[in-house]
């Protein structure tokens, strides 16, 4: 009996994704009671931890930068499905949900994940070291995508309000996919060395040989099982997040908070796996992996969400609001400028991490009290 419990304890990361999907199937389409909401939150948190574990198994098998790319794309694809589902079910109140969630993802990744990774890496190892070529290319792509899809709609005149016309939306969707595809090709094929962990700027080489890195890579079968369980865990995370979203929305409404806070909470839940994985990488002095996760997630969030909502808008009757307000444009500009100054030297101190976290705190405070 003791051995049986030990086996269950050792394999909880295999059981939790299945449990999350089963719970999701049993509760799908029904209104959750208070007790079920509490259970869903616990299972959701466990599924996040399981997702991080399986993402690390896959990353160990395929190596960097493919490992961070797998997690970023997997999370974003399911995030897109969640946004589109909520937009279909939510009516006119969700016209700005895609914008709010995508912008929240950009602020959380470019300031929250990046900031805490730089802070943890520099506090533990003196300075956080990464490759400025790779980080700079990623930041430039994120800035361009954000500008084209979230800033320009505020100033276009073909359609009233912060919206694109049909032709403009199609252009934004196609260019988003092209830019994201070009970046992935650069990251994984032509200039893969720009995105590998470094000892000092410009030197692609693993910096710390931990016990995990000395261990043999998992077999293809083990990696494929982990990839499947990663998918199940992420489906469980996003599906359960959708299940508790009515409670979140009612809580936000009863607290008198702006509806945009819902998008912030969704982004925080969905990005938990990347946050934990990035902090773990920073603790091992592999800050480049953390940077890949942070900026790659921001890029995937825009590059995949905008085309998806553009297609969904063909059958959605309500408006699709994408343009940011003045306050958010200021925060986006500040994020890009500070990010450029951060990545340019290829190393960072706790100060840079703290600056990014303060920008995130300002965004969260203004989301609650605009």
UniProtKB/TrEMBL annotation:
InterPro entries: Alkaline_pH_Ca-Antiporter (IPR052946), NaCa_Exmemb (IPR004837). Residues 35-188, 226-367 form the Sodium/calcium exchanger membrane region domain. The keyword S-adenosyl-L-methionine does not apply. It comes from the Bacteria. The chain crosses the membrane at residues 12-29, 35-54, 66-88, 103-123, 135-155, 167-185, 227-248, 260-279, 291-315, 321-343. GO terms for molecular function: potassium:proton antiporter activity; sodium:proton antiporter activity. Pfam families: Na_Ca_ex. It is found in: Membrane. Keywords: Membrane, Transmembrane, Transmembrane helix. GO terms for cellular component: plasma membrane. Signal peptide: none annotated. PANTHER family: SODIUM-POTASSIUM/PROTON ANTIPORTER CHAA (PTHR37958), SODIUM-POTASSIUM_PROTON ANTIPORTER CHAA (PTHR37958:SF1). This is Ca2+:H+ antiporter. It comes from Streptomyces prasinopilosus. The lineage of its organism: Bacteria, Bacillati, Actinomycetota, Actinomycetes, Kitasatosporales.
């Amino acid at each position: 009996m003791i051995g049986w419990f030990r086996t269950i304890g050792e394999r909880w990361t295999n059981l939790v994704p299945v449990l999350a999907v089963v719970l999701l199937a049993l509760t799908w389409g029904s209104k959750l009671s208070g007790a079920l909401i509490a259970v869903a939150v616990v299972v959701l948190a466990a599924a996040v931890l399981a997702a991080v574990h399986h993402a690390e198994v896959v990353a160990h098998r395929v190596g960097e930068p493919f490992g961070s790319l797998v997690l970023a794309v997997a999370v974003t694809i399911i995030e897109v499905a969640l946004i589109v589902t909520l937009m279909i079910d939510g009516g006119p109140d969700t016209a700005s949900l895609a914008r709010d969630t995508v912008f929240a993802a950009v602020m959380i990744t470019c300031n929250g994940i990046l900031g805490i990774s730089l802070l943890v890496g520099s506090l533990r190892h003196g300075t956080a070291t990464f490759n400025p070529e790779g980080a700079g290319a990623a930041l430039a792509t994120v800035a361009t995508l954000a500008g084209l899809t979230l800033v320009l709609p505020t100033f276009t005149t073909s359609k009233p309000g912060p919206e694109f016309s049909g032709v403009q939306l199609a252009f934004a969707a196609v260019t988003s996919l092209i830019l994201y595809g070009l970046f992935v090709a650069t990251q994984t094929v032509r200039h893969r060395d720009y995105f590998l962990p470094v000892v000092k700027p410009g030197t692609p080489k693993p910096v710390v040989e931990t016990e995990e890195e000395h261990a043999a890579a998992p077999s293809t079968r083990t990696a494929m099982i982990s990839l499947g369980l990663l998918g199940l865990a992420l489906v469980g995370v996003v599906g359960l997040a959708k299940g508790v979203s009515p409670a979140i929305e009612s809580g936000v409404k009863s607290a008198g908070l702006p509806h945009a806070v819902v998008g912030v909470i969704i982004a925080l839940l969905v990005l938990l796996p990347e946050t934990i994985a990035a902090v773990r990488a920073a603790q091992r002095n592999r800050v480049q992996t953390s940077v890949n996760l942070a900026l790659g997630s921001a890029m995937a969030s825009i590059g995949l969400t905008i085309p998806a909502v553009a297609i969904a808008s063909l059958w959605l009757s309500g408006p699709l609001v994408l343009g940011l307000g003045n306050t958010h444009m200021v925060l986006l500009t500040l994020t890009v400028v500070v990010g450029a100054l951060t990545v340019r030297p290829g190393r960072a101190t706790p100060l840079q991490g703290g600056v990014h976290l303060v920008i995130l705190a300002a965004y969260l405070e203004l989301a609650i009290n605009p």
